[in-house]
Amino acid sequence: MRLSRSLSISSLSGLPLWEEESLPVQDLLLFEVSWEVTNKVGGIYTVIQTKAKITADEWGENYIMMGPYYEHNFKTQVEKCEPPNPAIKAAMDSLINNGSQVHFGRWLIEGSPYVILFDIGASAWNLDRWKGDLWKVCNIGLPYHDREANDSLIFGSLVAWFFKELTDQLQDKQNIIAHFHEWQAGTGLLLSRSQKIPLATIFTTHATLLGRYLCAGNADFYNNLDKFNIDREAGERQIYHRYCLERTAVHCAHVFTTVSQITAVEANHMVHRQPDVVTPNGLNVRKFSAMHEFQNLHSLNKAKIQEFVRGHFYGHLDFNLEKTLFFFTAGRYEFSNKGADLLLESLSRLNYLLRVHKSDVTVVVFFIMPAKTNNFNVESLKGQAVRKQLWDTAQFVKEKFGKSLYESLLRGEIPDMSKILNRDDFTIMKRAIFATQRNSLPPVTTHNMLDDSTDPILSNIRRIGLFNGRNDRVKIVFHPEFLSSTSPLLPMDYEEFVRGCHLGVFPSYYEPWGYTPGECTVMGIPSVTTNLSGFGCFIEEHVSDPSEYGIYIVDRRFRSAEGSCNQLTQFMFSFCQQSRRQRIIQRNRTERLSDLLDWRYLGRFYMYARHLSLSRSFPSKFKMDHLNIAPTQGFRYPRPSSVPPSPSASLHSTPHHSDEEDDDSYDEEEEAERDRQNIKAPFTLGEMEKGK
């Protein structure tokens, strides 16, 4: 079920033209409205925060974000100041004089954009009146017990009220573009359109409301998209009013966008409108001055993870840490949506394959997903204490040994090794060794779980029997808390941890975009994603051989669950077969691919959406004739030049091979230069040949 492309990298031959004919931003105001402005709830916060810099660079002081006011967030993230635009100040004063509270300042992130924040609680006394207005406008009623929907109505009413006051102040001096994200902000869009406020409006859905609910309920979502009775499904889940708000906002907007092709397919069925533009999510990519710097960071952070593993597996550390690979998965604790079920089953099969092939590689897999806990578990804390005690003992003996050796050499004598350490020193070392003995297996979780017996991850670990035994080549560590550099167990922040791992595994079933594999790519860490995630679809469409660039795409759309599981197992097993040199080459390629995810490229989709909304709302002032782009040939980022033409030529016939092996065909500088040229190609394509 493939959606006909609205706009993607492969159809943007007109992009260079936009740079020459940019919008007259001095005559426009751009407002971006979202519930997650200065208010981190989920992934939309990352989209808005990272995109702020390129948008602020383009629009300057004419770019303003709008969101809800929370006192703590305002005090810690926003520098209060006066609006530079007198019309904005007058509109704010009008709301304040009528009993509302509105705050203005600079959000302290890259780009330092202006923000207008509306106090929801201070205007709650208007809720019943605004509910009546909403019913009159579109016959949508909100139940009193749904606080989130009620808050979105208050927020939307304040936004529409502000735009009404602002347009009255501006008259025709400046035109306004209002970009709304998700259904919570969509109420402001439908109220603005119902009042005929002269705005160019854009609505972006990052995931449809009903899509999230259906997938969370383990529905066979993508195979039944055209079979769902949408109204009934929303009603049974008691979200019909929210669904109506979302669908109304979608159809009221001048331009409707989604973040990926897979979400476009979903939106076409769930809200019955085909997106005008697909606007992929990007990141601010920071390049190092030398290629080897990010490899050095990998080495440094890997050493920190190895220290944790030494403590966590004390008494069972019978595997070689130099031949141990670190895999991880992270995100919200949505067991099926995030693919944890598929990953655990694949790990069981990977463990079997590594044992059957008598591989000397060990895989430690981290699950970083926040769950309900009451504290660190004692065994995990004890492990780190034992490791530290061993380290202190070794340092003490090393210092004494070194001093005795130094003095013997000064006297011109070859030291007697039997006398250089006395009996007490051996006693201390023996006690330290005895302290590492344990009768139990290393724990699979670092915390005490509140719902241990019913927890999905722990229940599946019991089912597959991966308890970190001595014979297991796959070990599991479930860390049910987000990482922090102040943690007594694993004192690393998320970025450091990702850089220290070898592979990120994200076999999601429902993932409208998926920032986690994108973040891995930017940091030069290979990752596994799926063709049901927006990121996976984006890479699959624009990269000829993603696996050679360290991005493995599991087919969860057209294969059975068994087939997907076997494919994921094979990806991980093949990765375990790679030599150290092959992994280094692959990390170099992965990091180079990060240019494709830079907002400097992907921000252009938002530029197109803004052009389109202006041409539809103010057709007499803004024309888009030059953007009627001819169909173009689909761009395919070519496979690396050093990769053999046959896939079989790059695989080993046996898992046992030398780390010192060399690949004479690989030239890092030459391949890097080709990739730098290829990254520019999507924006300068010719027309598609006839018949294709």
Automatic annotation (TrEMBL):
Pathway, per Swiss-Prot/TrEMBL? Glycan biosynthesis; glycogen biosynthesis
One GO process term, biological-process aspect = glycogen biosynthetic process
Q: Which SUPFAM superfamilies match?
A: UDP-Glycosyltransferase/glycogen phosphorylase (SSF53756)
Reaction equation(s) it catalyzes: [(1->4)-alpha-D-glucosyl](n) + UDP-alpha-D-glucose = [(1->4)-alpha-D-glucosyl](n+1) + UDP + H(+)
Q: Where is the composition biased (Acidic residues)?
A: 660-672
Reading the lineage from the top rank, the first entry is: Eukaryota
Region annotation Disordered: where it falls in the sequence: 633-692
GO terms for MF: alpha-1,4-glucan glucosyltransferase (UDP-glucose donor) activity
EC number from the UniProt entry: 2.4.1.11
Concerning Pfam families, the annotation shows: Glycogen_syn
A single GO CC term for this protein reads: cytoplasm
| Keywords from the named record | Allosteric enzyme, Glycogen biosynthesis, Glycosyltransferase, Phosphoprotein, Transferase
The UniProt entry's sequence similarity note says: Belongs to the glycosyltransferase 3 family.
Q: What does this protein do?
A: Transfers the glycosyl residue from UDP-Glc to the non-reducing end of alpha-1,4-glucan. Glycogen synthase participates in the glycogen biosynthetic process along with glycogenin and glycogen branching enzyme. Extends the primer composed of a few glucose units formed by glycogenin by adding new glucose units to it. In this context, glycogen synthase transfers the glycosyl residue from UDP-Glc to the non-reducing end of alpha-1,4-glucan.
What is the protein's name according to its record? Answer: Glycogen [starch] synthase
| Protein species of origin | Carassius auratus (Goldfish)
